[in-house]
Amino acid sequence: MNEKADRAHGTESETQARIAELKYSLHQMRQNPLVLAGLILVVFFTAVAAVATLLVSNDEAFMFDFGQSYCWSNAVFSWTQLEATCPPGTNFILGTDGFGRDLLRMIILSIPLDLKIAFLIVAAASAFGVALGAIAAWIGGKFDEAILRITDVFFAFPGLVLALVFAALFGRTVQTLTLAVLLVWWPTYVRLTRGQVLVEKEKTYAEALKSIGVSPARIVLFHIIPNAIYPIIVQMTLDIGGVILTFSALIFLGFSPSPALPELGNLAADGINHVFTAPWLIVFPGLTILLIALAFNLMGDGLRDILDPRLRR
Amino acid sequence: MIFVLFGVSAIVFYMARGFPSAFAPWAQYVSEKLKPGQLEAIIKAHGFDQPLYIQYWYWLQDVFHGDWGYSNWANGLPTYYVFVSRFPFTVELTIAATIFTVALGIPLGILSAVKNNTAIDHVARIIALTGYSVPSYWFAYILQLVFFYYFYTWGLPNLPSGGVISQGLAGTVPTITGLPILDGLLAGNLTYTVDALAHVILPAFNLSFISLGYLARIVRASMLDVLRQDYITMARSKGLPERIVIYRHALRNALIPAMTLTGIFVAGLLGGAIITETVFSWPGVGNVSLRAVFLGDSNFLLLYCLVTALIIVVTNLVVDVLYLFIDPRIKY
Amino acid sequence: MAHEDRGPILEIKDLTVNFKTYRGEVKALDRVGLALYRHEVLALVGESGCGKSVTALAILGLLPRNAFILFGQVFFKGTDLLKESIEQKREVRAEGIAAIFQDPVTFLNPVLTIGVQLKESFLVQKHLGYANLQTGEENKSPGGEIREFLMRRDSPGTEAQREGISGREKEKIAKELSSKILDLVRLPDPERILTQYPHELSGGMRQRCMIAMALARRPSIFIADEITTALDVTVQAQILALLKELRDSIDASTLLITHDLSVAAETADRVAVMYAGNVAEVATTKQLFRNPLHPYTQLLMKCIPDIRKLVVRLESIQGNVPDLIDPPTGCRFHPRCPFAMEICRKEKPALKSMGDGHLVHCHLY
After folding, report:
1. CA-CA distance, C329 to C327, in Å (whole number)?
2. Is the CB of residue C66 less than 8 Å away from at least one CB of chain A?
3. What is the mean pLDDT of residues C159-168?
4. Is the sign of the CA dihedral C351, C352, C354, C357 positive or negative?
5. Which of A1-15, A246-260, B276-290, C227-241 has the lowest mean pLDDT?
6. pTM for this prediction
7. What three-state secondary structure class fits A86?
8. Which of residues 137-196 of A touch B (CB under 8 A)?
9. What phi, psi does C96 have (nearest 5°)?
10. Given CB atoms, is B126 within the 8 Å cutoff of chain A?
11. Per the count of CB atoms within 10 A, which of A8, A27, B295, C345 is most buried?
């Protein structure tokens, strides 16, 4: 009975310490303008994603009016003399794409798709990678070595090659593309978690917990991972930007599931052959990707500074 | 290291041949003039009907005898020829991109660290972060749009939109190293060299813009760490001008981690920057590999993946060894 | 020139420094006042966290970014250092006040050789050449040249050389002087040491190198911040002896910062005791140890076990070091003081001179 009380007391002070740490982190965040800027952008894009289907109906993406393709009707800004002007009476702030759809509305529609996929990939990669890394680090020995070698193999693939080959083979659906990007992304989390857990494993509190008889699963789940979580969170934030870039790049390179799919890379791909006559097709979707990735990178980078143990206090 | 190579080749092999898709490995032996029974004969002869691990074994044997197979789209040329003839262009691009990255990224990181938490720092960090938030294909097209198209329409001297050398100058200089800039210098042909330089600027800058963000970040982080050390306080207490404190005392310590990053970056680039090479029609290895993926050229892909994996592994080793020389504290 | 000798070469008045931290403002120094005279060793003694190092950093102009000097003056040869520009402060560090720190492992740059780090101490000075070295006279004793060099800070002989020395000449001179100065600090095989890195030397050797780097700049004041703390006792004794020797041959004063009373007793002419950002007592070494006036000093003395007596239990001062974010009102020592009175809680004690240069900040007097 006393043990239970002791254990409860122990976790209570641990939680208190963690809350104090969190407060300090939040204070730091408030002082860092870059993180705030990133946060605002992230909130903005998430909000747009949430209401996108209210602003633009999904059907618009698949019902075209070819008569207005590749035209620009924004009176405020003009690109060159070569662009086509849209039929009078229409107002396309960012011009139209090859299918005659309003580019601005298409971009709005594609934000939720890209964000959803990015979150999914990062969540899956991190869940799987963290689990595998933690287990490998805890068990050690041959298993750990084997996992390490396997991640080495994945790291030896340059850039997108693995994802490209996978995508080329397994068809061009959104699901296979998601899997392709996942393939490239998961090893980072294994390495990262493994490194962190190895360090934490040697610390006195882990030994103490082991000697009391707490099961390894509990130690890893409730004590080690919460202490090691900060770099992983940073990596996840940064990766959301990276995943969007990779995913849209895959689609751009030619693995598009369907030409009319409202996805940022897809929209940009439409403009490859019209770079000089209809530049807005590449400029604006790409700019959106840039802003989304920048938002997450600002946040992640700022978080990394804040959570760096050497810079605290 | 051997395991890595085996692993890479096994994965690619399995994916290339083990799945029903357009990657029919016998496609390169097929022509219109084939009679009905000949296809089966060919399949049998090359062992394409055997279980996968036996096929892998055959392939390994072929490789050790120097037979990397034929590329089924480049007019049946041997794959190693395709690779080797393109590789120098990738090397030229890599060198140019590395120069840009280092020349721009390191000062950016130093600036950020020295002026920490000021407006300059924030601007520098945003530039660095934009670097690795930018979609490389998009940036490539923007560069082309501005420096090729708009400069032209505005009457400014413009940079070429792609290729390694202008049409009219191709072949006017003997190919010694395969790198156009070097060949031009060696032949003493200034027009050729300048033209080659003009062609490499945009793609190199495109590549470097992305990695200078990473480099600036690392340099900044390690500079900040170093500037907090006691020996910097000591150096300042000696009355040394701040310039010397930063460049002689701090930088030498801070650049050590940046070295690994540059090494990894170079290794990745040598594998061919697929997107950049495609957009700028740069006839390098990455460009070719994209086409190989689309055309199902498993032979070429295998060679390509293995060579790049080898480059990456070797570069990591080289960087580790370099550490021993740069950091006097490390003794083997 | 002689009449200036009786005034202090360094005088700190009312120095008050705060640090801004997440948890609040740390009132690190509270109206600190000190005087350092020519050719003496003043020991600044106190426990960790009492503000000794902060004082040193404030004098040098090397306080971290989150530190704020609220008011106060630091007079060095008549000029208030705190009002100088950054460039002027740097010049003072280069040729006026030299600091020696503890634990040279972290204070010496690990990727530069000792030679480089020593040479730059020579090269940072404006006037390097002097007549004797140029003409290479040989009738000096082996250590003579270097001592001459160290003696002459702005001697007329150097005037003539001032403009004519090229960079390369300077480098050569600096190199020669480097190995000679290592000799002076009693390091064997100086040529070899110049090519080595800090981690290749022992702690005592590193400390001597640091002393050499400070010596090379021919300062008027040495600030030695806990220089013996990271060394074992035998090496400690050697370093202190070296310091004494050097002090005698060069006309410089030393501010010796330490938490170890015995080090102060052995090397210092005068001692200043600090507690929680205040100066408690200043006296000559003899006065302090024979007749400590401030309760804190008295308790400190009691804590030192007498080697001649049998001690069953070590004495300690009751209570804890105060939190400087919210320091005690009035005299900062009053919560732990056995003689605390009502007034101690309300007012900070003013400086009282008890004659013969014995100063104390306490309401008892």
Report:
1. 6
2. no
3. 57
4. positive
5. A1-15
6. 0.82
7. coil
8. 149-150, 152-153, 155-162, 164-166, 168-170
9. -110, -50
10. yes
11. B295
